[in-house]
Amino acid sequence: QKMADQAKLDGDQAFKNGEFQQAVNFYTSALEQNAINGTNPKHTLLSNRSASFCSLKMYEKALEDAVACIACNPSFAKGYSRKAAALCGKGDVDGAIQAYKKVLSLDSTNDAAQKELTRLESEKGKRTSSAGGWSSEDTGRQSSAKSSDLSSRKWWLLNIILLVAQIFSIIHAVMVIFITSHYESKNAFGRAILAALFSFTGQAILSYGFPSFSTGKKLWKAFRGKASPAEIKDIANFAMDNNTHNIFYCSLTLSAAPSLLLLIPLFFENAISVSKRAVQLTSSLPAWALALKTAVSACADKVLGREPDIRRMISNAEVLIFFALILELFTSRRNILLLILYGQLLRVRYIVNADSKLAWNTVASRTDSVFLHANCPSLIKIAYNKVKSLAAGLVSQGSNQS
Fold this sequence. Notes:
The chain has 18 helices and no strands. It has helices spanning 3-16, 20-37, 42-55, 59-72, 77-90, 93-106, 111-130, 148-178, 182-208, 213-223, 229-239, 242-253, 260-282, 290-304, 307-328, 336-352, 354-371, 378-401. 34% of the residues are buried.
């Protein structure tokens, strides 16, 4: 069976079993490979991953996938259901109500959407008349009595700020290429990294919320080996998140000597994120902004349509950076601590990211053809096999721990 289709089936099974993070991983793999060997519509995979993110209470990511799903197939009613669920989780009740109305306009027989719409409208009416907060059963969705309009405006403002930061990072990354002055080039490099760090941190906050005392308490309990399985799962989900990896990567590159190569992963990560965020922000604009929505969607589709290829390019660049850091050990730019920490990041990436695994397997295949060649001296073969076994052991150990 085709790889993408099998990944989708595995994701469906994981979702049924309540293993939502596994489901996300499988659906992500299916999306990455679907253009190559899959038969499932892209909007179906995005819809399923949105539901998985929603089950993990990662409402920002759920909304991103729901919006992308709708962009792929505007007549797919379930896409609007996913959007409504994500908006409801974020506390944007008015937005969720509008999304459920759109579901019913496309599928008037959808009883689940009608039930949710009735519930939300009823609770909104009670809340307006009593000027009180949500009922106790909804405290998980809205922790305060602030209006949903204010919540929606804050969400817009945060996303616009992050969009500007990402564009700022992209522009300064490009400036590094054309600036001839070493001093100005170094400054542009630093600004690109800092803007990217800010945007990835903001995206993590949108997905998981602001860190609180309970967050520190969870980490302390995990450090002491006394955390519950649910707490460990929450920490693991955050640790395995792509935004977390990017935050760590940006932190590392701040201590590195400026290099265009180090900016390649950030440039393409920002390009993908800008495209998704722009579509997300313009999707709810009124009818008079149709021309803007169409233009943004057309530009974003050019990037998002090649997202699997770009993801593979990012993984290949990450591998290339690792070998570049090794070569720098023999120069005045050496940074041993950076190499060690970056190696640990790549170890995690290999475990959780299919493209990273493919990139490293490609490297292994090519080095095998050189160092295990029939004409290669036996001493080199033995040394190579030992290094390869050591690397495999480290990755295997990390997989068991995760």
